[in-house]
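Subject: Re: docking follow-up (flavin-adenine dinucleotide)

Dear J.,

Thanks for your patience while I sorted out the input files. As discussed at Tuesday's group meeting, I've set up the holo structure prediction with flavin-adenine dinucleotide included as the bound ligand rather than trying to dock it afterwards. The sequence and the ligand SMILES I used are pasted below, so you can double-check that they match what you have on your end before we go further.
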Amino acid sequence: METDYLIVGAGAVGLAFADTLLAETDAHITIVDRHGKPGGHWNDAYSFVSLHQPSAFYGVNSLPLGHDRIDETGVNQGLYELASGPEVSGYFEKVMNQRLLASGRVQYFPMSNYKGDGRFVSLLSGKETQVHIRKKTVDATYFGTTVPSTHKPQFDVEPGVDFVPLNELPHLWKRSQRMPKHFVIVGAGKTAMDAACWLLASGADPDSISWIMPRDSWLLNRLKTQPGIDFFEETLAGQADMMEACALATDVDDLFDRLEACGVMLRIDPSVRPTIHRYATVSTGEVAQLARIKHVIRKGRVTSISPTSVVLEGGQETFGEGTLFIDCSASAVEDRPAVPVFQGDLIVPQMIRLPQPAFSAALTAYVEANYEDDTTKNGLCGSIPLPRTLELYPRAVLGNMMNQLAWSQDPKLREWIRESRLDGFGKVIAAVDPTDMSKVAILKKFRSFAMPAAANLTKLIPPS
Ligand SMILES: Cc1cc2nc3c(=O)[nH]c(=O)nc-3n(C[C@H](O)[C@H](O)[C@H](O)COP(=O)(O)OP(=O)(O)OC[C@H]3O[C@@H](n4cnc5c(N)ncnc54)[C@H](O)[C@@H]3O)c2cc1C
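The structure tokens for the complex came back this morning:
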């Protein structure tokens, strides 16, 4: 078997890369994945999951996701729609069937485990296939996404504990005689927030919920991430405020205080200072719901769970009979060091615009197709690691700014970004009427703080 590009992973990253590579080249592509369907971790997600960013700029470049509607009800009211998990899964199936396979230039091998060196093994037949790769291998597995239904918790769970991944929550109706009396959410990320919102929206009393929160997070305000001209005053003003905060902050705590003051960052409990930021994106409606849960346990990570108690790094908590422990402790995206994206005959797509894996993968494919050598390509695709600590946040913001600067100086790339559906903002900025003084003033503010922001962020980055 021969191919030009072998892509390992048919998740958002592998598919967004394949889609743009297909559009930009005549290459033949082979995609291998151990899941039975395209879409990666979305196949293992809980039924009530949704995107936490607008559908408008998620997925692949060639196919819209959703209908750019504004939600009229619920915690996302007034903001662009968020595709549900089933919608995302259906979308990726459509991408595979109607775009990639329909091109006649793509082969897809589901239920196949990649072993390295162009070899993969069918999980069902055990048959091994060797592929001769004419051009490159693309490792679209680098984020190592983990979700509660497939991960192994990092703590002990004694036999007899009623412990389930949050995927089980909608199935509780089947337990008519044994309905839990109390719920304990284990984990503090976006998944835990989804579990809490689901419980509350489904009728659980806030006092029947305890929330184990090892660390409080700064959360991105979804209002400030809305695409489209109607939200210019929120999104672009948010970006301008962010530049101002980055330019003037005296240290990282001051930076987050400023970002909170201008509404870019949110937190659930105003009396507790967050110690982490993982780019979870929420609405103020979600925050208001989450704040209804009063029993929040801040005693570090869980070390073990028995049927009626939890041992944590900082102490123990006891609960009554009939307690359901809900596992939301998977890390979602793994902490991995940034490596060069282009490495000879290997491409490792990573975040080159944080936190947008799909845009990043599509742009990486565009660069692969249209630029010559790895030095030039890596110059346009500087990888940005997810900040493990708040102290590393300035480095991530600066990484985004440096890549954006490099793209803006390349007319071809600038044009591609502006036309890309995965970029929510370039076309909005380009469409600003020069006589609209309020929008012009926002752009002016953004531009005037950009260089001072870059200079100040450099000072805020801790020495490595
Ligand atoms: C609940 C949740 C919600 C999210 N919401 C958003 C959002 O709104 N916006 C956003 O931008 N990001 C979001 N993310 C982040 C998310 O990680 C990315 O959007 C994206 O889906 C990750 O895609 P991926 O292709 O990197 O990983 P995956 O979806 O995990 O895909 C990787 C694929 O590689 C395959 N694979 C791995 N190793 C091998 C091997 N050896 N052989 C064969 N196959 C292999 C796996 O089977 C998997 O299908 C969310 C994450 C989670 C968990």
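A couple of observations from a first look. The mean pLDDT is 96. Residues 437-460 form the longest helix (24 residues).

Let me know if you'd like me to rerun anything.

Best regards,
T.
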